[in-house]
Amino acid sequence: MGSKIIAIGVVLGVLTLLGYGIYMGSQSGIHQGYEPDQPINFSHKIHAGENKIQCLYCHFGAETSRHAGIPPSNVCLNCHNKIKTESPEIKKIQAAVAEEKPIEWVKVHNLPDFVYFNHSQHVIAGVSCQSCHGPVETMSRMRQANTLTMGWCIECHREKGLKPPPGHGDTVPEELAMEKHPRLFESGRDCAKCHY
Predict the structure, then answer these.
(1) By Cβ atoms counted within 10 A, which residue in 2, 39, 56, 90 is the most buried?
(2) pTM of this prediction?
(3) Residues 120 and 66: beta-carbon distance below 8 Å
(4) Domain limits at 164?
(5) Are 126 and 142 within one domain?
(6) Is 115 helix (H, G, I), strand (E, B) or coil?
(7) Cα dihedral across residues 152, 156, 162, 167: positive or negative
(8) Long-range contacts, 113-116 (Cβ 8 Å, 24+)
(9) Is 133 in the same domain as 174?
């Protein structure tokens, strides 16, 4: 009787550890809520919220490039060469520009190296920045609002009824390609679109 109880206890212990390991593994790489300190106290709440500066004014690469990019310091000085020029934070930007040194911002939104994401495809398609980055205009300090996991992305594509673009490695018309490869035209089914 005692050995049965010990065996059951061991099995339950192993199953608990296994379940915990699976759960922790499933959370690996998820940085939702990540909100690092930055070298400059920049507030999206003031700039994008109160002053209604459009995201693409600073992150102009998002419209034409795979990366939205961190704005060059000179972009800040487009306004701040006249506004709040004596602010300690603006002084840091002025010094960086004068010394020709980049500001070492801490990247907030990180995807695994094997994931391909193209900002321009989403911007051109009319996806709002807030869809992925959350209510940026309310953030005093930038944080990762969503999980940015594969399931999260696929769910968004499914909700929007999206499919891979026509001519996806196929030179045949979309109707024929759909006949030939119907799974490619279901949202989120083309692995090579996002993975190397």
Answers:
(1) 90
(2) 0.73
(3) yes
(4) 149-196
(5) yes
(6) strand
(7) negative
(8) 114/195, 114/196, 115/150, 115/194, 115/195, 115/196, 116/66, 116/193, 116/194, 116/195, 116/196
(9) no
pLDDT in tens, 90-99: 999 999 999 9
- On whether both 140 and 45 belong to a single domain, the answer is yes
Q: Distance of alpha carbon 177 from its chain centroid, rounded?
A: 31
Model pLDDT, residue 26: 54
Mean pLDDT of 79-96: 96
- How many folded domains does the chain comprise? 2
Considering the domain boundaries, does residue 11 fall inside one? no
Regarding whether 191 and 178 lie in a shared domain, the answer is yes
Q: What would the pLDDT profile of 14-62 be if each residue is shown by its tens digit?
A: 778 876 666 655 555 688 999 999 999 999 999 999 999 999 999 999 9
In a domain, 59, yes or no: yes
| Same-domain check for residues 48 and 129 | yes
What count of Cα atoms within 13 Å lies in the side-chain half-sphere of residue 10? Answer: 6
Residue 129 lies in a domain: yes
Is 187 exposed, middle or buried, given 0-12, 13-18 or 19+ CB atoms closer than 10 A? middle
Task: Examine the domain organization and report whether 136 and 177 are in the same domain.
Answer: no
